[in-house]
TrEMBL record:
Chief location bin: membrane
Native source species: Rhizobium etli (strain ATCC 51251 / DSM 11541 / JCM 21823 / NBRC 15573 / CFN 42)
Region of interest: Disordered: 1-22
Protein name: Chromate transporter protein
Biological classification of the source: Bacteria, Pseudomonadati, Pseudomonadota, Alphaproteobacteria, Hyphomicrobiales
InterPro entries xref list: Chr_Tranpt_l_chain (IPR014047), Chromate_transpt (IPR003370)
GO molecular function: chromate transmembrane transporter activity
Gene expressing this chain: chrA
One Pfam family per UniProt: Chromate_transp
Presence of the UniProt keyword Disulfide bond in the record: no
Residues annotated as transmembrane: 99-123, 129-152, 159-178, 184-201, 243-262, 274-294, 315-336, 348-369, 381-411, 431-448, 455-472
Cellular location(s): Cell membrane
C-alpha cells in the first residue's frame, strides 16, 4: 500500500520547503473548491484551460509562482496526453501530495465526462430527429473551421525553420498519401529530433509553447508554496516506483482481464487495447490524436461514420474539460452499435467509463513517476529536440485531419481511389453540400476575421444548423 501523504525521508513530514519549515497554509477543503472551479471553467482547449488555471492558481490565489508554473507546464508538454489535465495533477501534488494530485486530476475530467455522457445519450437516442440532427450538422461545419485554426496556431509556433517545415511536410505526406500509422510518424520524428538535439543543432532547440498571462509576474518566493522544494516533492525513487506500479496495474489489469475472458474480437477488449495505445502516443494534443482515431475507429473498426467523429469533437469543444474527452464519445458509440448481449445504452455507458479510465489513468502515472525528477529531464537537450520534431510532425498530421474532416463535411459522397501504394479520398463534386460550405465559411470568418470565441462560434453554427434543418423540413 502506498502512503498517499508522504514520500519524503523521515523527519521531513508536512508540506514544507526543504530545510525552511515553510507551510503554504492552503487547506485541502479550499483546494478542493478551487479545483472544482477550475474544472467548471475549463473551456476552449488546452490554451484556454491553462490560461484559466494560471489566472486562478497564480494570479488570484497566488499558490505558486510564475517560474514554478511554467516549469511544471514544460514538463507536462513533454508527455503524451492532455497537458492541462496533467498540469492540474502536478500542481495538486505539489500542494497536497499524492491525494491532492488525484483529486485535482479527477475533478478536471469529471464535468466533461458527465456532460459528454449526457450528450451521447441524446445523440444515440435522438440523433436522427430533425432538430438534433440540425444541431450536429451546424457543429460539424464549425468544427472544421476550428481544426483549420488549430493547424495555423500550432504551425506558427512549431514550424520555426525549414527543417521543422520539412518534418511537418513529410508527416503529412506519410499519413495522407500512404496512410502510415500515427505512432510510426511520432516515433520517426522523435528519433530525428533526438539525434538532432543531441548533436546540438539549433534547428531542434525547444521553443514556443504556451505563454503566461501578461502583467506583473509573481515570483516563487512571494507565492504561498515558496521557492524551495516541498519535502514530499523531493526525488524518491522507491515512492515513484510504488505509486507507478499501482497506477500501472489499475490501467492495464482491467484491459488484460477483458482480453483474457472476452477475446480480441470483443468490442470492450478492442476499446481497452486501442485507447491504451492512444494514451502512449498522443503527443501534440487532441487534434493530433483525432487524426489517428479517425483513421482507425472509422476505417478499421467501423465504430463510427466519418461525420460522427466531427459530432463528437463538437461535443468536446462545447463542454468543459480536455478535448481528448471526444474519445469517450467514440467508445460510447462503438459499444452502442456492438453491445453483444447487453442493453445498448448500458454497454455504451460501460464503454464510455472504460475509455475514460484507460485514457486518463496513464496521465497520473506519467506525473507521479516523473515529476520529482523534472530538473534532470528539463536539462536533456536530446529529449527537447525529440519533442520539437514531434510537435512539427503533429502539424502535418493535423493538416491531414483538417482535409479529411473537410471532405466528409462539405461533400456527401467521398470515394477512395488507389494508385499503387497511394490511397486518396476523392470527393464527388456533384455531392457538395452548399449549407455546410456556407456554415464553414461563416465560422472561419467569425474565428479569423472577427476573433469570435470558439464557444460562441460553435453555438452560433449549431443554432444556424437547426434553423436550416427546420426550414428544409
Amino acid at each position: 500500500m502506498v502512503d498517499m501523504t508522504e514520500n519524503a525521508p523521515a523527519g521531513q513530514a508536512g508540506n514544507k520547503d526543504a530545510g525552511e519549515g515553510h507551510h503554504h497554509g492552503v487547506s485541502f477543503g479550499e483546494a478542493f473548491r478551487v479545483w472544482l472551479r477550475v474544472a467548471a471553467l475549463s473551456f476552449g482547449g488546452p490554451a484556454g484551460q491553462i490560461a484559466v488555471m494560471h489566472r486562478i492558481i497564480v494570479d488570484e490565489k497566488r499558490w505558486i509562482g510564475e517560474h514554478r508554473f511554467l516549469h511544471a507546464l514544460n514538463y507536462c508538454m513533454l508527455l503524451p496526453g492532455p497537458e492541462a489535465q496533467q498540469l492540474a495533477v502536478y500542481i495538486g501534488w505539489l500542494m497536497h501530495r499524492t491525494f491532492g494530485g488525484l483529486v485535482a486530476g479527477v475533478l478536471f475530467v469529471l464535468p466533461g465526462f458527465l456532460s459528454i455522457l449526457g450528450l451521447s445519450y441524446v445523440y444515440a437516442a435522438y440523433g436522427s430527429i430533425g432538430i438534433v440532427a440540425g444541431l450536429f450538422f451546424g457543429l460539424k461545419a464549425a468544427v472544421l473551421a476550428v481544426v483549420v485554426q488549430a493547424v495555423i496556431r500550432i504551425g506558427s509556433r512549431a514550424l520555426r525553420n525549414r527543417v521543422m517545415l520539412a518534418v511537418a511536410a513529410a508527416a503529412f505526406v506519410a499519413i495522407f498519401f500512404f496512410h502510415v500509422p500515427f505512432p510510426l510518424i511520432v516515433l520517426a520524428a522523435g528519433i530525428i529530433g533526438f539525434f538532432g538535439g543531441r548533436l546540438g543543432l539549433d534547428t531542434f532547440k525547444a521553443g514556443g509553447g504556451h505563454k503566461a498571462a501578461s502583467g506583473a509576474v509573481l515570483s516563487d518566493a512571494e507565492s504561498a508554496l515558496g521557492e524551495g522544494i516541498p519535502a514530499h516533492a523531493r526525488a524518491n525513487l522507491a515512492w515513484s516506483l510504488r505509486i507507478s506500479a499501482i497506477l500501472l496495474a489499475l490501467w492495464l489489469v482491467p484491459v488484460a482481464v477483458l482480453y483474457t475472458f472476452f477475446g480480441p474480437g470483443d468490442v470492450f477488449s478492442q476499446i481497452g487495447l486501442f485507447f491504451s495505445k492512444m494514451a502512449v502516443v498522443t503527443f501534440g494534443g487532441a487534434y493530433a490524436a483525432l487524426a489517428y482515431v479517425a483513421q482507425q475507429a472509422v476505417q478499421h473498426f467501423g465504430w463510427l461514420k466519418p461525420g460522427e467523429m466531427l459530432d463528437g469533437l463538437g461535443m468536446a469543444e462545447t463542454t468543459p474539460g480536455p478535448l481528448i474527452m471526444v474519445l469517450q464519445f467514440v467508445g460510447f458509440m462503438a459499444a452502442f452499435r456492438n453491445p453483444g448481449s447487453l442493453d445498448p445504452m448500458l454497454a455504451a455507458t460501460l464503454a464510455a467509463i472504460l475509455t475514460t479510465w484507460v485514457t486518463f489513468v496513464p496521465c497520473f502515472l506519467w506525473i507521479f513517476l516523473g515529476a520529482p525528477f523534472i530538473e534532470k529531464l528539463r536539462g536533456n537537450v536530446a529529449l527537447a529536440g525529440a519533442m520539437s520534431a514531434i510537435t512539427a510532425a503533429v502539424v502535418g498530421v493535423i493538416l491531414n485531419l483538417a482535409i479529411w474532416f473537410g471532405l466528409h463535411t462539405l461533400f456527401a459522397e467521398v470515394a477512395q481511389v488507389s494508385f499503387g501504394n497511394l490511397r486518396l479520398d476523392i470527393p464527388e463534386l456533384q455531392s457538395a453540400v452548399p449549407a455546410a460550405i456556407a456554415l464553414s465559411v461563416a465560422a472561419a470568418i467569425a474565428l479569423f476575421r472577427f476573433k469570435t470565441s470558439v464557444i460562441a462560434t460553435l453555438f452560433g453554427c449549431a443554432i444556424a444548423g437547426m434553423l436550416w434543418t427546420l426550414a428544409m423540413n
